[in-house]
Amino acid sequence: MTADDRSFPVYHPAALDGVRRKRMIAFLIDFTLVCILWLIACVIVGILGVVTLGLAWLLYGAVFPIVAILYSGVSIGSRGATPGMRAMGLIFRLDTGEQPNFWQGAFHVILFYVITSFTGGLALLISLFNSRKRLLHDMLIGATVENA
Q1: Could you report the per-residue pLDDT of 6-33, keeping only the tens digit for each?
Q2: Of 24, 64, 79, 92, which is the most exposed, with the fewest CB atoms less than 10 Å away?
């Protein structure tokens, strides 16, 4: 399989075998890691709050989104997959076959949380009805998650 072939997994069903199940497990791994990083960031903000006489405590509401965006943007942008995706043998590819950059990885996670928040997760069911097993936020940025 050449690099050009991998950009079109619809022609290679083996590239999509078990992707839904692997993505769910990868999400749980990534969410756990983001929560650990969030707790560390909260401790740092707490200490900064003491130093700044409470001013830094205004950041608490933004800590989780910032950590999640940085986590996904850096990991997808630098390695083409989050640590959870790599653990499950998945890779994140753009429809053009290119590796995504930081902004595409960050936008991907922003779309995921916004879409699942407003639809209560029902938008995730869209993967059951398309041949490439893509979710709504994958389609919006033109990406596919496939087996590495």
Answers
A1: 455 444 777 788 899 999 999 999 999 9
A2: 24
Alpha-carbon distance 14 to 100, whole Å?
22
Look up residue 43 and give its amino acid: V
Whole-prediction pTM value? 0.85
Spatial distance between the Cα atoms of 83 and 61, rounded to a whole number of angstroms: 25
Question: Is residue 50 exposed (0-12), middle (13-18) or buried (19+ Cβ within 10 Å)?
Answer: exposed
The two structure tokens encoding residue 34:
């983001």
What whole-number distance in Å separates Cα of residue 63 and Cα of residue 84? 21
Q: Do residues 74 and 50 touch, judged by C-beta distance below 8 A? A: no
What tokens appear for 38 in the block? 């969030």
Domain boundaries, the chain: 3-147
The stretches of the chain forming alpha helices (DSSP H) are 3-6, 19-51, 60-79, 83-87, 102-119, 136-141
**pLDDT tens, 70-91?**
999 999 999 999 999 999 999 9
Sequence length of the chain is 148
pLDDT tier, 131 (very low <50, low <70, confident <90, very high otherwise): confident
Q: In which residue are the tokens 């997959």 written?
A: 81
